[in-house]
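It would be a great kindness if you could assist me with a short task in structural biology. The full record is reproduced below for your convenience:
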Amino acid sequence: MKQLFAVIGMNVRSIPQRAGMSIATITSVAFMVAVLLGFLAMANGFEKTINGSGSDDVAVFLRGGSQAEVNSVLAREDARLIEVAPGIATDESGDPIMSAELYVIVDGTKRSSQTEANLPLRGVQQQAVNLRQNFALTGGRMFEPGTAELVVGEGVIREFEGFDLGQTIRLGSNTWTIVGTFSTGGSVFDSEVWADLGVVQNLYQRGSSVQSLRARLTSPDAIEDVRAYVEGEDRLNLDVTSEREYFADSAGGIATLLKFVGWPLSIVMAIGAFAGAWNTMYSSVDSRTREIATLRTIGFSGFTAFMGTLIESLVLALLGGALAILVIYILFNGNSASTLGGGFTQIVFSFEVTLGSVISGLVLALSVGFLGGIIPGIRAARVPLLAVHQN
């Protein structure tokens, strides 16, 4: 063990003698890990936003087979029939806690890129605020029914221009006044703009139709009673899901896609990092041939030469991985971003560098260091003793 620690220390201390190639290896590993961590941070943040959206005791009603609000159309009669369904919760006055809603896509301008992107303008009824977990007004007030007033989610304000409290904004051919801002604790709803349902129906010529119904259930298990009621009512052609299930199905796959994009890109870059580590370690062995041979002559084993070279490669890879983690955490963790969600509109979320992502990055870095150091290490172990006499 003393021999092993002595050789490892000697190898690590000699790294500055090959500063150029060592820095190149560290940099290539850092880029590889940074790409992986960037995509994982994006996927983790998006996934957290989706998982934090919706509730098990809120049911979402869409037209049968539509799968998403943008494809759904419901009539006023549908809402009346759902109001009397078993399992629908009521407020103190006995009215069902339900909101008929209309989902319209409008354009917004991103602050960062000055490009246009789709935003959801949601026409809602008064009970909508009671159907969203952690809903709170963060500024101003709720819109007045029958007026062209908007309340805007905090995510929209962070990512898009023109939606600050008190501003007037033109969406399509209509002019709106922003009278309030709200937060739902970082859920998908923070990426929405809300207005009175009747006003949205009138301005966008939707008549009395809506696209979805949301209703509070007496309990999460009551959704089975509601489904049985819908299936037994010939006048209804609706799909019924819990709100949490709806968001998981409509947008959860995007987080998985982001992860699958990040890993292949990182693996491709790992090939380059592996080549860099290999060249660096070969250079290290070549420059210390006489030194290694001398150690072998005075009794050091070939195994210690192998391990010294391998650990030197692992140290370089670890430095690259640590550098990437530090940079990504400082530059990205907690930063706001947006991407296209299941409703063809932007979902605002925050990057999140998790412990699991860090571990994945370090494992990838050390794997490259390990593979890049094996063959040079074997070569170091086989340096002939006669090399001590070479000039």
Remarks:
- The mean pLDDT is 84.
- Residues 17 and 354 are 36 Å apart (CA to CA).
- The two ends are 30 Å apart (CA to CA).
- Residues 243-287 form the longest helix (45 residues).
